[in-house]
C-alpha cells in the first residue's frame, strides 16, 4: 500500500521506478525528471514529510508510506498553497521545470524549521538546481512563505 496525496494505491509493480510511476501511471506530471540520477532535484517529492528524490526510489522503497507530490499542495478548488503563492509573488518561477522540486524541498524545511535564515534556506535547497532564476527570488519566496505560514506572535508582556 502506498498513499499519494491522501489517496491509497494497492496494486502496482513494486520494482517500478517511483518518479516514472507517478508520472506515467498516476499522471502526476508535476514531478519532473531532469537528470534521472539523483543530481538535479527536479523529481523531489515528500515521503512522510521528508524531501526525497523520486528518480532514485522504487515503489518497494516507499511501501506503507505517505507521499506528497506538488499536486497535493493546492486546495480542491485550485487555491495555491501559501508556499506556491509565495513563489509566484516573489517572481521565483521562470521556466518552472525546477519549481515543483524546489517547492517541496522548501516545504520539508519549513515543516521542521518555521523561521529559517537565508543561509538555512540555501542549504536546504542546495540539491535543487535552477537554470533560470539565479536563486535570489527563490530564497525570497521561501522567506516570504515562512512569514505567512508561521507568523511570529508578538508577546505584549506589560506586567
Ligand atoms: S531527476 Fe531526480 S534528481 Fe534529477
Ligand atoms: S525556473 Fe527554470 S529551471 Fe528553475
Percent of residues in helices comes to: 25-40%
Helical stretch tally? 5
Q: How would you characterize the largest beta sheet?
A: 5 strands, mixed
CATH H-level homologous superfamily name of the largest domain: [2Fe-2S]-binding domain
Distance between the termini: 55 Å
- Given as residue ranges, the uncertain stretches (5+ residues, pLDDT < 50) are none
Biggest sheet, strands in spatial order?
2-1-5-3-4
Shape: globular
CATH secondary-structure class of the largest domain = Mainly Alpha
Overview of this protein structure:
The chain has helices spanning 18-24, 82-89, 99-112, 118-124, 136-149; strands at residues 2-4, 7-9, 44-47, 50-53, 66-68. The chain contains 5 helices and 5 strands; from the N terminus they run E-E-H-E-E-E-H-H-H-H. By secondary structure, the protein is of the alpha+beta class. The protein has 2 domains: 1-72, Ubiquitin-like (UB roll); 75-151, Orthogonal Bundle (DNA polymerase, domain 1). Strands 2-1-5-3-4 form a 5-stranded mixed sheet, covered by helices on one side. The structure holds FE2/S2 (inorganic) cluster (2 copies). One FE2/S2 (inorganic) cluster binds at residues 33-36, 38-43, 53, 55. One FE2/S2 (inorganic) cluster (FES) binds at residues 33-36, 38-43, 53, 55.
List the defining traits of the structure above.
globular; binds FE2/S2 (inorganic) cluster; DNA polymerase, domain 1; single chain; 5-stranded mixed beta sheet; 159 residues; alpha+beta; Ubiquitin-like (UB roll)
